Every structure is written in C-alpha cells, then in structure tokens.
Amino acid sequence: LLSHLEQSGWARPTEDPRTPLFPQQTGFQASRISLSQFLYQPFLGKLNAPILLSLTLPAGEVPSASPLPDRTFLGSLVSLTVLLREGDFGFAGGRNEAQNLRRHLRHLERKYGTVRNFSRKHKTTLQYIFWGILLAGYLAMVIAACALNFQRAVPLFVITVAAIFFVVWDHFMAKYEHQIEELLSPGREFLDDHWSWLKWVIWSSLILGVVFWLIFDTAKLGQRQLVSFGGLIMFIILMFLFSKNPTKVRWRPVFWGIGLQFLLGLIILRTGPGLMAFQWLGKQVETFLEHTDAGALFLFGENYKDHFLAFKVLPMVIFFGAIVSLLYYLRLMQWIIRKIGWVMLVTVGSSPIESVVAAGNIFVGLTESALLVRPYLPHVTKSELHAIMTAGFSTIAGSVLGIYISFGISPAHLLTASVMSAPASLAVAKLFWPETETPKITLKNAMKMGMSDSRNLLDAASHGASSSISVVAHIAVNMIAFVALLSFVNSALSWFGNMFDYPQLSFEIICSYIFMPFSLMMGVNWQDSFMVAKLIGYKTFFSEFVAYDYLSKLVDLRKRSGPKFVDGVQQYMSIHSETIATYALCGFSNICSLGMVIGAFTSIAPTRKRDIASEAVRALIAGNTACFITACIAGILSSTPVDINCQHVLENTFASGLPQNTTDVVSCCQSLLSSTVAKGPREVIPGGNHSLYFLKSCCELLKPSTLNCSWIPNTF
Concentrative nucleoside transporter C-terminal domain: from which residue to which, for each copy (predicted)? Predict the structure, then answer.
C-alpha cells in the first residue's frame, strides 16, 4: 500500500518517524502510522483516490495493535462515518474531499435508516410476500411436473396435497376452534345423556362385525387366522391377570389402542392401495438409505462391502441421524409427532404426554423420545412413566430401520410394525399398569416440544451426525459382545449337556422350549414355532440386531429354494411365519435396553429414580407383549401364501401317477422353471436342487415358451 502511494506521489518513504508523511498536504502530518490502521477501499466509484485513514498521535507514542473492526462494506461505512465525525482521523485526499465524503456518508446513512425502518415496519408483509413467491413457484413446478407425466408425479402431487391440507387445517382450527366446539356441543350433550345404552349398541355392533369378518375370512383363507385371534385374546387376559391394579383398568385405552392397531393393519395389509403405498414407501426408504454408500465408498474405499456390518450398515445410522436432525431444525419432525400424538389422544384416550412420546417413538429411539418431554418427566404419574417406557420398548428407532432393511427384511413389514406398535404400546401399558392418579401435564404443555439449538442447516446436519457416534458405537460393541457371549454360552451348555449324553444342548434349544407357546399363540405353525421361539430368545436376552441377523439368514435360505430339512434339521420357515417373526421382533424390549432406559431416565429425572427402577422390568414385559400383540394382528391380517414342500409334492405326483394339474403341482413347477438355468442343448441346470426328471416332467406339463424341453436330457 505504501509503495502504491509512493508511486502515485501521495507519500514518500522516510526513516525519520517525525518527518511529515504527506508533504504535499499541509496540516495532515502523522507522527507514526501503523499498517493495521489502514482502510483502503474504493467508495462507490465517487472517488478515484483511495481512502486512507491514519491515527493521529502525539510525537513519540506508539499506536496500540487493536483488532480491526468488521471490514464488510456496511461495517466500514459506519466506522468511517463515526471516525470522520469525531475528527481524530486524517484523510489523505485533502479537506474538501473529506467534507464531500462526510456529506455522501450522511446521505447514505439517512437512506439506510429509511430502508431499515421501512423493513421493520412492514416485516410481516414482506415475509408473506417472500413466502408467497416461493409457494407460487413450487406450485407451478408441481403443475408442470403433473402436466409432463402425471404417473411419475403422483408421489409429489400426493405429498403436496397432504401438506396443503394440514397447513390449512392448522390455520382453520387455530382461528375457528371455539366456534367448532360450540357447533358440536349439542351432539356431545346428546352422547353424554344417552351414553349409558349407546355404548352397548356400539360395542355389540363392533363385536358382531369382528365375528362375521372372522367367519368369512376363515372360509376364504383357512383357520390359521383364528389361532392368531385366539392368541390376541390370551395376551389380553394374561396382561389383565398380572395387572398392577386389575380393578382400576379403564377399557377404553385398551380396546381403542388395539382397535386402532387393527384398523391400521387392515388398511395396510388387506387393501390394495394401502399395501401398494407401504411397499412403495419401503422401496423409497431403501433407495434413500442407499445414498449412504457414497459416504462409505469415499471413506473406506471400493472394498468397503467386504466388512458389511461395519462399513455398509452402521454408516446408515449416521446418515439417518443427520436427516432427523435436519427435520428437527426445520420443525417438521415436531409437527408430525404432534399430529400423530393428537390422533392417539383423541382415539385411545391416553394422556397428552403419553400420546406425544408414543408418537415420537415411531421415528426416534426410546431415550430420544423421552427428551421430547424432558421438562415434564419429573411430574408424570407412575402410570404415565410406565407407559412412556413401554412405548420405547415396543418400537424401534428410524435410525436402525435401515440396518434391518439391509439385512434383507421386508421394508413394508418393518414400517407397518413401527406404526402399529405405537397404539399397541399404550393399550398394553394402560392394561398392565392402570392410571390411579390425576395427570398434571396438560395438552398445551405436552405439545410444547423442544426446538433445535442448531444455528443453520449445516450445523443441524453436523450435530445429528456427531450425536450418532454413540449410537454406532453402542451397536458395534454390543454386537461384538453378544455374539461372543452367545458362542460362549452355547459352548458352556454343550459341555454341561455332554455330561448327560446330550452335547447338542444350546441356548437356542432352551429358548425354543421357553418361548414356543408364545409363538404358537401368535399363529405360527407347530413346525416353525421352535425357530420363531429361538429368534424371540435372541431378541429378549441379547438384542434385536442378533435376532434379525439370524432371521435374514433364514429368509435367504428360503429364497434359494433349497431343501427344507438337512439331516433332520429344519433350514428355513414359511413366509407366514417369517412375517409374524418380523412383527414380533420389532422392538427394543431386551435386557440391554433395560439398562439403557434406567440410566437415561434417571439422568433426565433423578428425583424419580426409585419409580424408574421399580417400573422398568414391568415395562420391559409390557413392551414385549405389545410386540406379540402386533404379531397377532399381522397373523390375522396377513394373506401370505402357504409354503409348499415342492420336493415332496413333485415326487409324489410324478412317481405315483397322481393328478398333475393341481394347484400345488403347478405352483411348484412354475417355481422350478423360473429358477432353472438353460445354456443350450444338454446344458440345463434345474433350480432348487431338483432333479432333471422333475424338470422334464414340469416342462412337458406346462410347455413354457422360455425353455426348450428338448434341451433337457433324458438320462436322469
């Protein structure tokens, strides 16, 4: 800067600090000048000369190295105005230029003040204009997408319509809530006056409807749905018999919770649009979580899938944690939780705090959902505290949903189980520990959830990813510990059983006998009940991660269409049993989570430490039961095809001369032909470990267009 000034004739170098720095301008002498005090900047093209400020000090004094103020244009403008007004700074352009500059700065300062006052006065109007322009642009984009290809734009159209409906509904209810209450008050008074006999009519109609539905459904699909329905009744009876206060049970939360769960399952599993919607949603979630591969590939290299769980699965937790944190920052997550909580509050009749936590558990973990209502946790009743813990045990977090999907478990069933378990948890909690106190938390307070403390979107994403580190570490260390512990327990049990000539004794065998009655009650057939019982044992005593990992191996074996029994040992289950197991395992109700809940809730509400410790075990049992009831509902409503032992069917049909056009034979032949690999004449490999004889017979029976039957050799 000094070199530039010297070349332009404005200054000359000198070794004497007392020599005038500006020889051409009298009256502007500086004893000493510090480079940190220069402000060099063209001023809006008004002045061609540079602006040079120097602190004028008495001779011999050294200027302090104070930090520069903010050198943005606005900051420089304000600082320059103040400095020129005070008169403690010299301007290198001369007195006339300095006065002109002062006038320009005062003029701009007045303009800036006018604009600022106008913005403050019309802040709301300007915000409406800004958001209106954005909304109009978005709607134009949606209309254009629908005009180009409506089939492709259906998801965007549905999301837009739903968002507009709920936003309008919120504003409408906020403005006309009292008028609506007055309008509906006559109907409410009528129900209150005649509820003594109307409730019997309503309940009788519902019971008759369920009975007739079961009769027609059983005639259509068989009797296995009746077993699941009987198991549902048995679980309700058991919860009532072991209830904390059986005489204090309010049956509205119980029936409405199970009824809402049944209605959700009916819409999702039995209606075409509901099933298609959740299958589509499951695929979208699966596709969405696959974006984690980009980060894993960048960090771990091309061979990251060689360590599937560590480098492929666990990064999904970090990615999902960042997304949830973004949704919290945008306040979308709180809005969704409030809506779902309000639905359960109105239907199930649970308290506001219970409804909010149960709704939150659909998306977040059992400890994170408690943080939604952290200020009110020390003031909840014992029944509410039990219900909050039960809701956490009976559901899974969205952050681990991607892990189970990556294992090969059906995304649609996992999403359905997460939604259905929320009302089930409230029903079981109110049955196992009825409310005997008056709740203190009002609806208005419960709906006031905490907001994100992040400053912007990037900060929110970073905070969500960082907070997932503990979750990833927890999953990793528990998988290592539990799998190693399971191996040790099986080795110890085998050593102990060998003393009694029973070396095959293992943890799986013990669990298969302990939990086998429960799997039978859920509707699993006798042959598969022992395998489902093993999975329940893994989930209860170790972790649902271990259970879903073993279930994924069974699903993979079934999809390979291999032999169902090898050396007398069953290799996989039926599709119906896999479906029931998927719902029964979908919850955090295990011993490890019990310790997490006690520790987390005690840190949030230390004054309730005694209540938390005494209620946690009952909440664990209630959470497991809620998962079992969800599995019973899935067993009633699931219409999965009955698996067929094709090896046995084809052998009996083609070897004994039985009729060959039965449904089972055709189904098995279609499965065999679809899994066959044909490279050319005499180069045909049958699928499912079937023989060439069965393949030849099926080919002659169905005469498929995709396979030339003459390619199959006659030498079997």
Answer: 413-635
The answer to whether residue 541 scores a pLDDT higher than 80 is yes
CB distance 695 to 684 below 8 Å: yes
Residue 449 near residue 337, CB atoms below 8 Å: yes
Cα radius of gyration (the chain): 36
Give the model confidence (pLDDT) of 631-685 as tens digits.
Answer: 999 888 876 544 456 666 777 777 666 555 565 677 677 777 766 777 777 777 7
Q: Are the CB atoms for 693 and 713 separated by under 8 Å?
A: no
Which 3 state secondary structure label does DSSP give 566?
A: strand
Count H helices and E strands in the chain, helices first. 28, 6
Tokens (6 digits) for 248: 């204090």
Query: Are the C-beta atoms of residues 602 and 553 closer than 8 Å to each other?
Result: no
Q: 64 and 122 in contact (C-beta within 8 Å)?
A: no
> Does the pLDDT at position 208 exceed 70?
yes
pLDDT in tens, 133-175: 999 999 999 999 999 888 888 888 888 888 888 888 878 877 8
* Pair 320, 295: CB distance under 8 Å: no
Residue-level pLDDT at 631? 92
Assign 672 to helix, strand or coil: helix
DSSP three-state, residue 703? coil
Phi, psi of 464 (to 5 degrees): -65, -40
SS (H, E, C) 99-166: HHHHHHHHHHHHHHHHHHHHHHHCHHHHHHHHHHHHHHHHHHHHHHHHHHCHHHHHHHHHHHHHHHHH
8-state DSSP, 640: P
Give the C-alpha separation, 215 to 238, whole Å: 25
The string of DSSP codes covering 452-513 is: P--SSHHHHHHHHHHHHHHHHHHHHHHHHHHHHHHHHHHHHHHHHHHTTT-TT--HHHHHHH
Average pLDDT of the residues in 244-261: 87
pLDDT of residue 219: 63
In degrees rounded to 5, what are phi and psi of residue 284? -65, -40
Indicate the pTM of the whole model.
0.69
Both structure tokens of 156: 């965007």
Structure tokens at 19: 């020599």
Cross-strand pairs, 54: 90
Contact indicator for 51, 91 with CB cutoff of 8 Å: yes
